[in-house]
Write a structure and sequence with these properties.
Number of helices: 9
CATH class of the largest domain: Alpha Beta
CATH architecture of the largest domain: 3-Layer(aba) Sandwich
Number of domains: 2
Largest sheet: 7 strands, mixed
Distance between the termini: 5 Å
Structural class: alpha/beta
Number of strands: 14
Strand content: 25-35%
Radius of gyration: 20 Å
Order of helices and strands: EHEEEHEHEHEHEHEEEHEHEEH
Shape: globular
Helix content: 25-40%
């Protein structure tokens, strides 16, 4: 194996430790603190000279704080003459701001890629971007981006659920249709398509859907859940049209604003998310299951350091 080091930011040390444990190494020695004026201070004590360095940081809220900490970590490692810096981003900050919808709007995803390049990052490892096309921003900065998929983890989970019978997969919006089709084919069940339009930020209206859900249990898979507004609207429509149990799965449990309240009071039978974002005790409601995707990241790191 090539000599390598795994360093963790403060956003998700549990995830970083899972990766390190699977690879049979300990996390490197890093000191991260915050001054009284809120500035972040980073010192990398680990010897990284000439080594492959993997920085683990999840970009959930407070997003700017997580991002700045990551940039400082990369800068510190670059100054210590690391051979190559790979950033492991289970959840990418500014992942939804990957296109301009108004004149004068900042293309935030591109800015993140440029910042990472500026501090020496040459490779990014992530999972289930909001839009797969976003990888181009890293490519434009000569950063290699490997995007993993939670697909095998979810399929394995669903196949073990004996209670999931008479199931249809529902694509909650137009953008999710290709991925939903993949799940439907693999699980050998029908696909129902929903079409929606957004009226305000995080508020949606469902115009129509194609396919029947009457008397069927429903499985909805998406890349993330934010405030839960879209999902709850879909669930209500499904129930009105005779659906049985409704199960939901997504890679990133953002769960911001009123999400937990909405999910708790909804007709959802079960919610499956991964551990790309750590969840507080208050957010771990009874109908929620969390599965780990850290092993997928560890497998990829192992291939790179062979």
């Amino acid at each position: 194996m090539k000599p390598f080091v795994i360093l963790s930011g403060t956003s998700h040390p549990e995830f970083a430790k899972k990766i390190a444990d699977e690879l049979g190494v300990k996390l490197g020695n890093v000191e991260i603190a915050q001054f009284s004026d809120s500035e972040t201070h980073v010192i990398v004590h680990e010897d990284v000279a000439g080594k492959e360095v993997f920085l683990v940081q999840s970009g959930y809220a407070p997003t700017n704080e997580r991002l700045m900490e990551l940039l400082l970590l990369a800068e510190a490692v670059w100054n210590k003459k690391a051979k190559r810096i790979t950033v492991i981003l289970p959840f990418v900050p500014y992942r939804r701001q990957e296109k301009q919808t108004k004149n004068g709007e900042a293309l935030s995803f591109e800015v993140v890629a440029r910042l990472l390049r500026a501090v020496g990052v040459r490779r990014v490892l992530t999972i289930d971007l909001h839009k797969h096309r976003s990888r181009r921003f890293f490519k434009d900065q000569h950063i290699t981006c490997k995007e993993l998929r939670a697909f095998p983890v979810f399929v394995d989970f669903f196949k073990k659920q004996k209670s999931l019978e008479d199931v249809v997969v529902v694509a909650p919006d137009k953008g999710s249709i290709p991925e939903s089709e993949k799940y439907a084919r693999t699980l050998k069940v029908p696909l129902v398509r929903f079409y929606k339009r957004r009226t305000k930020r995080d508020q949606i209206v469902i115009d129509r859907f194609e396919g029947s859900v009457k008397g069927k249990n429903v499985l909805i898979i998406d890349d993330e859940i934010n405030t839960g507004g879209t999902l709850v609207g879909v669930v209500q429509t499904l129930k009105k049209n005779g659906a049985g149990e409704v199960h939901f799965a997504c890679t990133h449990g953002v769960l911001s604003g009123p999400a937990i309240e909405r999910l708790s009071s909804s007709s959802l039978e079960h919610i499956l998310i991964t551990d790309t974002i750590p969840q507080s005790k208050e957010k771990r409601i009874k109908k929620m299951t969390i599965v780990s995707v850290a092993s997928l990241f560890a497998q990829q790191v192992r291939q790179w350091v062979k």
